[in-house]
Amino acid sequence: MAKMNDVLNNYLQLCAKFSSIDINIACREISAAIKHHDGIKFNTEDMEKMLYLQSTWYKSLDVDSKNPDYSVYSDPYYFCETWLCWIKYSKRYLKEIQSSRSMSDKSIVDYMNNVSSVLDLGCGAGYTTGELKKIFPKAKVYGTNMEGSSQFKIAKYLGKKHGFKIFSNHSGIKADLIFASEYFEHIQAPVEHLMEILKDCDPEYLLVANTFNSRAIGHFNEYSHFGNKFSGKETSRLFNTTLNNMGYKKVITQCWNNRPAFWQKSHAGRLSI
């Protein structure tokens, strides 16, 4: 059995309470996935569950790209993917925005004024949402995920313990700050979805990290926008252009590789789309 640190062990123990996941298998899968992510040689048999989910997802896209197999999100071993996203992406992004070096003379967190509400889109098991509550202890913090999924249940459980709330979607939530780490890639029409979120939630700030070009469980080969098809690269450009057109400006930061991208509402007005 691969070694587990205490945090990972606690995570998998929690997952096991809400799903049929085998902790030993999950630990092995996560260890292999981390090696794969870091470009280190790994045994594909050790990542069998996650590779199967990815294969299932992309095969479903080949059969009917408009009706992908969303059941992959309900598989207990999708928790391995959410852990990988947490330790390799969102955890680092949250550390970045608190660093005094993330802006020229202050942290991104210090730069943002009067954040009284935060929305974490696609919050997984709620670990990122919980950290956002620690960063903004006085703010109302919300997370979204697929209602009925094991992830939703765990996030709701953690929310009761740590003071944040979980919902199935963003509808009706006004948020000063929106955090979206590896979220929009899982939406087939991400730019249309972005437009809905901006209109409904009216955020002052957004912290976004997208990887439309990457291959992963739940990502699409191409994306749609009002009936037209776009590559991942084209979607990324369209995403940024839409933010600009809807009245947001990209704030220059010192974050590594400009991730997460930091956007702020420009009070000079917005273009209609």
Q: What this model shows, in words?
A:
The protein has one domain (6-265): Rossmann fold (3-Layer(aba) Sandwich), CATH 3.40.50.150. The mean pLDDT is 95. The N and C termini lie far apart (54 Å). It has helices at residues 6-18, 23-37, 48-63, 78-98, 108-111, 127-135, 150-162, 190-201, 232-245; strands at residues 117-120, 140-144, 165-167, 177-181, 205-209, 223-225, 228-230, 248-251, 261-265. The chain contains 9 helices and 9 strands.
- The percent range for strand residues is 5-15%
CATH topology: Rossmann fold
Shape: globular
The first-to-last residue Cα distance is 54 Å
N-to-C SSE series? HHHHHEHEHEEHEEEHEE
CATH architecture term: 3-Layer(aba) Sandwich
Structural class assignment: alpha/beta
Biggest beta sheet attributes:
7 strands, mixed
Arithmetic mean of pLDDT: 95
Topology summary:
Layout: H1 6-18, H2 23-37, H3 48-63, H4 78-98, H5 108-111, E1 117-120, H6 127-135, E2 140-144, H7 150-162, E3 165-167, E4 177-181, H8 190-201, E5 205-209, E6 223-225, E7 228-230, H9 232-245, E8 248-251, E9 261-265
Parallel strand pairs: 1-2, 1-4, 2-3, 4-5
Antiparallel strand pairs: 5-9, 6-7, 8-9
Helix pairs in contact: 2-4, 4-6, 6-7, 8-9
List keywords for this structure.
9 strands; alpha/beta; globular; two-stranded antiparallel sheet; 273 residues; Rossmann fold; 9 helices
Summarize the structure.
With 273 residues, the chain is an alpha/beta fold. Helix content is 43%, strand content 14%. Helix 4 (78-98) packs parallel to helix 6 (127-135).
